[in-house]
TrEMBL record:
The chain crosses the membrane at residues 6-24. It comes from Hucho hucho. The lineage of its organism: Eukaryota, Metazoa, Chordata, Craniata, Vertebrata. This is Amine oxidase domain-containing protein. PANTHER family: AMINE OXIDASE DOMAIN-CONTAINING PROTEIN, BLR7054 PROTEIN. Keywords: FAD, Flavoprotein, Membrane, NAD, NADP, Signal, Transmembrane, Transmembrane helix. Belongs to the carotenoid/retinoid oxidoreductase family. CrtISO subfamily. Pfam families: NAD_binding_8 (PF13450).
Length: 142
């Protein structure tokens, strides 16, 4: 009885491994050479870039049958969306700001360009900037 059960179990495991291997080998791997493509030309014209980066939300622009909705166009959101898109998923990225990029985008004011990442990092209360075992920011001065 035991040899028969062991034989059936072994046959099932071998069949499962064979089917899994055949199916997995047919899939397109996201980071393989066949998925790579050369980047398009660098767009330096601000109007052309803004046409892509500063589109307002409208329901008629959202495609149907999405596989993923990524909320936020920061570094993590754009990376997740790019990997999912390379894997063949239909993805949309939603951003509340008028420009994609999260902390990585810049803005201009009076002819000067500012990096937003540094601005976001500077609005902490003093106790949030304290390191464990060290006084809060500003306490060492007075």
């Amino acid at each position: 009885m035991w040899p028969v059960l062991l034989g059936v179990f072994t046959a099932l495991v071998v069949a499962w491994v064979t089917i899994y291997t055949l199916n997995y080998s047919k899939r397109k791997r996201v980071f393989s050479q066949e998925c790579l493509r050369l980047p398009g030309p660098l767009v330096t014209d601000k109007k052309q870039r803004d046409e892509v980066l500063k589109k307002d939300f409208r329901m008629d622009r959202v495609p149907e049958n999405l596989d993923a909705i990524v909320i936020g166009s920061g570094i993590g959101g754009l990376t997740a969306a790019a990997v999912l898109a390379k894997a063949g998923k239909r993805v949309v990225v939603l951003e509340q700001h008028d420009q994609a990029g999260g902390c990585t985008h810049t803005f201009e004011n009076q002819g000067f360009e500012f990096d937003v990442g540094g601005v976001y990092g500077g609005f902490h209360t003093p106790d949030q900037n304290a390191l464990p075992g060290r006084p809060a920011w500003g306490d060492e001065w007075g």
